[in-house]
């Protein structure tokens, strides 16, 4: 600011007035100051101004690098945060970089609130975190913790998928579990309940897995090995998420299994990659934009009213039928 003042031939106080858009400078002087600032490449440090007032107006978002659905959520977080006058800072978990490390990086940059996407941390940790900064959990309920949460009604989504497969005639329906991933426990429970409701207890099978392509590939190889030993393939697979569904489809396709003629596959999330496959993936859609908007609003509202009780937004999912689900092979129903 001193450089701008010297070159424009005015006081530093007048430069400050212009950049704060306050009255006190004539139009000609204002234009000269802005022109000089542009010439020397000066930009007001809005972050420093906010910190001087004790605010950063920044929302920190913790996400996982390889989770495709997280990128869809982030795409919805930015416009809503900007609409409400907040910046967004991202910090990722990855191989060798824990949630705690990603969160501490956000706090060290003075984020006022944290939006954690798909956290698998213990509830006690998230409760402690909420004591340090406003915290919103997306994709997972955290009972007992002082955090707001936004997630889809997992049970409804799984019921829609299972009803769809059963109506097509499927009976041997396998579920690839998502392990500790967000929503996995509820999806697992709902799968089991749906199989029992349709009288398919004898065919119920949950294969341990994760929300990754590698997990889907491993499951595909397992099922193919069982087939080679004389055990028939299932006629349908409900995967823990879209990434897992893509992995199992890759493994089966390489072995000559044709989808959906030989076997149907249903995912969960409706991430943007589910539209880009050679065969569109039948999946349960979570509205990433609506989830993102709720998360941002929860964070901003709690910053203004920290005494509020924790809130929970449960959004209805919707089955999207595409090309990977169809009737079971002839004679398998």
Describe the structure.
This protein is of the alpha/beta class and 333 residues long. It has three domains: 1-44, Orthogonal Bundle (434 Repressor (Amino-terminal Domain)); 56-152 and 287-316, 3-Layer(aba) Sandwich (Rossmann fold); 154-286, Response regulator (Rossmann fold, 3-Layer(aba) Sandwich), CATH 3.40.50. It has helices spanning 2-8, 12-19, 27-40, 46-52, 68-83, 99-108, 123-130, 154-168, 184-197, 213-228, 242-254, 288-304, and strands at residues 58-64, 87-93, 113-117, 134-138, 148-152, 173-176, 205-207, 236-238, 264-269, 282-285, 312-315, 318-320. The strands form two sheets. Strands 2-1-3-4-5-11 form a six-stranded parallel sheet, with helices on both faces. A six-stranded mixed sheet has the order 7-6-8-9-10-12, with helices on both faces. Strand 6 (173-176), helix 9 and strand 7 (205-207) form a beta-alpha-beta unit. The longest helix has 17 residues, at 288-304.
Quick synopsis:
Residues 307-333 are annotated as: Disordered. Residues 1-53 form the HTH lacI-type domain. By secondary structure, this protein is of the alpha/beta class.
